[in-house]
Fold this protein.
Amino acid sequence: MDPRVGAPGGRRRLGEVLVAGNVLSEAQLDEALRTQREDKGRRRRLGEVITALGFADEVQIARALSDQLGLPFLDLGSMPIADETLAILPRNVALRHGAVPVTLAHDVLTVALADPTNVLALDDIRLATKLASVRTAVATASDVQEAVNRYYGGTAAGGGDTFGALADVEGLEAGEEREEELEQVGDVDDAPVVRLVNAIMGEALHSRASDIHIEPQERDVRVRYRIDGLLREVTVVPKPIQGPLISRIKILSGMDISERRKPQDGRGRIKLDRLEADTRVSSMPTMNGETIVIRLLRKETEKAKTLAEVGLDERDRQVVERALAEPQGLILITGPTGSSKTSSLYAGLASVIRPDINVVTLEDPVEYQMRGVNQVQINERVGLTFASGLRTILRQDPDIVMVGEIRDPETASIAMQASMTGHLVLSTLHTNDAPAAVSRLIDMGVEPFLITSSLTLVVGQRLARVPCSKCSEPVEADPRTLELLGLDPGQIDASGLRKGPGCGFCAQTGYQGRIGLFEVVRVTRKLQELIVARATEVALKEEAVAGGMRSMRADGLAKALAGGTTLEEVLRVTPPDPDLARRARRASRAATADAAPADAAPAQAQVAQPPKTPPKVLVLDDDHAIAEVAAAVLVDGYEVVAAGQVDEGLRMVASEHPDLVLVDLDLPGTDPVQLLARLREAATRELPVLVMSASDDRHTRDRAAAAGATGFIPKPFGEAQLRGEVAAVLQRRPALVDHPA
Ligand SMILES: [Zn+2]
C-alpha cells in the first residue's frame, strides 16, 4: 500500500509547527488533539479546534505557519485571481483540500492553503494539474474557505468537511452501512459485470497472480496481473463498463461505493474450484477514475516459510540465526516494496517463537496469522500508527517485537530505544541495499550513536524468478548479460545455468515462483566506528564486504550458476556490485599479465575531484520540458546537461562524465534494466541514477528499484523534491564528501 495514503502525520504536523512557532504550548496542543479526537460526527480540523479553544486566532496560526515553513502569507481577499489560474485546479481538488490557486507563471503554480503541511493535498494538486512545480502559500482558514466558495461555488461551505482533513473517523463507522450496501447488490450487478469480475478474479487465482490491477485510462480500463513480481496486461475493458466493474469489486470488498474521491481499503474472499484466497483491496482516485488494486493472499501457498525456504544459504543463515538468538538488538531487512521483506521477517520470527517468550507484531496489513504471536493491525484512521502502536506495545514489555516497516523518524527512534532496552526488534526499511540502511536512518535524523548501540544485523533482499521446472533446460550464458554483470565468459562455470522457453505450465514466461537473493551485514565493531564517524555509504559497503558480506548480486550469481534463477534475473533485480565487476577485472588482468596487487583497486574513484567545479547532472528524457525544468530548479550549484535519446545520453555519459543521471523510466523502445546497466557501463566511475516516472505508484517504484535505480522521483516533481533528492544522492558520493562533517 502506498505509505502516503491516509498519512497520519498531517494533523499532528500542523500542531508541531505551531508549537515550534510558540503559538501553542505542548500542553495546549495535547488538549487540542484530545478535543479533536472527542469530536462527535464531523471531526473538525485541528486549526478550527485551536481557534475554538481560544488558544490562537486564525491570523496567528497562518503567520506562524508562514514563519516556520518559510512560505508567503497571502491575503486572499485583496488578491485578484485570473480565471485561467482558477481553471487549472479541478473543482473537486480545490474543495477537498481547501486549496486556492493564486498565480500561474512559467508553469509554476502557487496555491494557497490553510494547512500547507498537508502532504496529501500537495500530491493531489500536482497530480490533478500535471504541473511540475507547485508552490504553496499560507492563508487563513476563513480566507481560503471564502475564496473556495466564491470561485468554485457555494456548496463547499455546507459541511465544512471539504477542507484538508480526510475525515479520519468515517472509516470506523462504515461497518453497519456496509452491510446495507451488500443487501443492494442486486441493484448494481448486472449479470455481465458479475461474470466479468468472476472471470478476472478466477483467472488471477489460476495464474498464480499476486495482485490484480484495475486501471482506468482515458479511453478504456486496463486489467493487469502481477505474476512472480511482474505486471502483465490480461484484458482491456471498455470505458462504459468502468463504473459497474469498480462498483462490483468495491461491494465485494466491503467498500463504500458512493465514495469515489477518497482512497479506500477493503477486504474480501474469493473462491474458485479448490482455490481460495483472501483479498486486500485498495482504491485510489485518479484523473480517469478509481484505480483498484486487489492483493490475493492465498491460503495454501502463503504460509510462513523457514529461513532456508526463503533462500538464505547456510552461511548467511547462521549469521542471521546468531543475531536472532541475542536477547536484544535491532534486525533490519531492506529492499524495495514487493521484495518479500515481510516473508523473511516471518521466517525469522518462526525460528525464534517459543511458548515462554512474548512476541508482538505491528503490521500493515497482517498477512499471515501466526500461531503463538500477538499480531496488531495498523489502522492509521484511528491513530494506530507504527509509532503509536510501538509505544503501547512496549509498555507490555514483550521479548520480541516485529514492526512491519520503519518509515518515519518517530518509529525509528522508538524502535532503537526498544532494541537497547531488552527487546529484540525486527523491522524492514525501504532501501536499495543493506549498507544503505545506515544512511537512511541518519537521513531520518537518527543519531549515529543510537544506530551503533542498537543495530545488530542488516539483511538486503530481492526476489528473483526461478526457472520453470517443466520447460527449463541447460543454456549457455548470454555474452551481453555477462558483460553487463561485469563478468568474463571464461571466469565462470556456466554449466549449471538453466532457462525455459516458456510452456503452458508457466504461462509462457519460462519462470515459476521466486527465490530470495540476500546480502547479510553483521554490524561489527569496525562498522560501528565508521557509522559514528559518519562514513560514506561507499565506505560502509567496503567495510561490510571486507567483513564477509556477499552482495545480493553475488548471491544471485551463485544461485544462477546452480540453476536456481537466471543471469538475466540477477541483472534485473539486484543493484550493481562494483566489487563483482572489480573482481572480474582483476581476475582477467591476472590472466593476461601478472597479478596486480589485490587491493590496489579500492583506491579507485575516491581520489576526489576538485570540489570547486559544480556537480554535473545529465537529464535523459525525450521530453525537453523536463530538462528545462530540471535546469531551472538546479540552476544554483549544478551544471545541467540534457539528452533526448538513449544513444546521445550514453555518449554524453562517456564524454561529459556527469556526477548523476536523471532518466525517464519509460523512454520509448528501451528496457530500463538494460538502460541503467548501459549508462553505468559507459561511466568511468560509480554513477548514481535517479529515475523519473509520470506514474507514481508502488509498482513503478519497484520497477525503478528493480532496474537498479539509486532513487525515484515522480513526475511532475516539486522543486524542493528534485533539489533534495539530487543533493542527497550526491552527498553520499565519496568524491564530493571527502571529509564528512
Ligand atoms: Zn515452463
Observations:
- The radius of gyration is 27 Å.
- The first helix runs from residue 9 to 20.
- Confidence is low (pLDDT under 50) at residues 1-11, 154-190, 587-611, 733-741.
- The pocket of zinc ion is lined by residues 468, 470-471, 500, 502-503, 505-506, 510 (CB under 6 Å).
